[in-house]
Amino acid sequence: MAKIVAGDKTVECRLLIFDKDGTIIDYKSSLLSLARARFTSLNRLVGEQVANAWAKAVGVDLCSGWIDPEGPLGIAPASEEMLVTAVILYQRGWGWNEAKQLAETAFNEADKSMKPPFGSVPLAGVPETLRRLKTLPDLKIALASTDRHWRSSQTLKALNLDVYFDVVLGADDVQRGKPAPDMVLEACRKTGCHPSDSVVVGDSRVDMLMGKNAKAKACIGVLSGITPRDKLEALADIIITSVASLSPAEKQ
Q1: β-strands 238-240, 218-222: how paired?
Q2: What percent of the chain shows pLDDT beyond 70?
Q3: Quick one: angle between helices 48-58 and 78-91, nearest 10?
Q4: How far is residue 53's CA from residue 190's CA, in Å, rounded to a whole number?
Q5: Cα distance between residue 161 and residue 131, in whole Å
Q6: What is the rounded distance in angstroms from the CA atom of residue 237 to the CA atom of residue 136?
Q7: Could you tell me if 152 and 183 are in contact, meaning their C-beta atoms sit under 8 angstroms apart?
Q8: Which of 109, 130, 163, 232 has the most crowded Cβ, counting Cβ within 10 A?
Q9: Is the pTM of this model over 0.85?
Q10: Which CATH architecture is the domain 2-26+120-248 placed in?
């Protein structure tokens, strides 16, 4: 079993499961790029008034760059954001089926307008940390993101980070997204590990709850993302500044 140093603590595990945005990727760069693309698509399809209502509903201010850490844009999978958009359209006179179709069209159009790595930038020290962790023979590394699988996978590839991950999971790979345990359980299934030998690393409360619900060995909260320390401390077993604070223990 691999030994990982997290700040001033050491944990043993067979599987490290990382969140993406706010954990290994600068969340503002990626989420704001995605939000701008969706706003532009909605503006073109149904007008600026609806696009502005969408931005408010999902918790983003594109002028200031503010993102609600507990809002749909920050923590919800695309499927749930589409439903929020469909409700907005329904309230403005579209029939429910048409509203759902329009929301899906807008999101798909936004996706097509973006190119890898979709505005994503690795957080400082992440590539070096992943490189060091990958040298541990008894450790598997997985990504569990609320983003779609294809975008997560293409983002990692464009940033040359894909080589460090044994498994990449998006919200569309499981029946239930975070905070349900499904992504942890699926990562364990794909790597042959047990949840009790896994450690979840993330920047949000839903990451910590996902790990707790899966009965992971430990949940490590990072302060590089959207959630303040006090809210992470209520759920995390360990708090570190960033993923760069992780390293292999000197003796394995």
Answers
A1: parallel
A2: 99
A3: 130
A4: 40
A5: 9
A6: 23
A7: no
A8: 232
A9: yes
A10: 3-Layer(aba) Sandwich (3.40)
The pLDDT value recorded for residue 252 is 43
Give the residue carrying structure tokens 């790597």. 191
pLDDT along the chain (252 residues), means of 10: 94 98 94 96 97 98 94 93 98 98 97 95 98 96 96 97 98 96 98 98 97 98 93 96 94 51
Q: Domains of the chain: which residue ranges?
A: 2-26+120-248, 28-113
